[in-house]
Structure prediction request, 115 residues.
Amino acid sequence: MSIQVQVALRTRKLGVLIRDARLAARKTLSECAQLVGVTSGILRAWEEGRKAPSLPELEVLAYSLHLPLHHFWSKEAMSDDESVTIPSTCLPSSEYVNAWLERSCASNAKMPAFR
Prediction:
C-alpha cells in the first residue's frame, strides 16, 4: 500500500474518531470549532477526512473534549456513556478498503463524506 493511500485512510479514521468524540461530548460543530480556535468549515473537513488537524490542534481538541490524546490513535469510538470497541466484522475488509482508496487516489476522485 502506498504512503498516499495510508495517509488518506488514516485521515478518514481520524475524522470518524473526531466526529464521534464531538457528538459524545454533545457539542455542536460550531461550539467545538470555537473551543479549538478553527472555523466550522475546517472542523467539518477534519470530520469528513478531507484534512487532518495539526498535532497542536489535535491536542487542544482532546483537552477541550476531556479526552486523552491517545484516543485519536485508537480503534475505539465513544458511546453516550462509555467507550466501545468497533467489531472488525462491522468494517469492510482491508483489501476492499485498500483497493477502493488506491482507485480513488489514482483517479483523484473526491472521497465521499461521512454524514
User: Anything to note?
Assistant: The two ends are 27 Å apart (CA to CA). The chain has five helices and two strands.
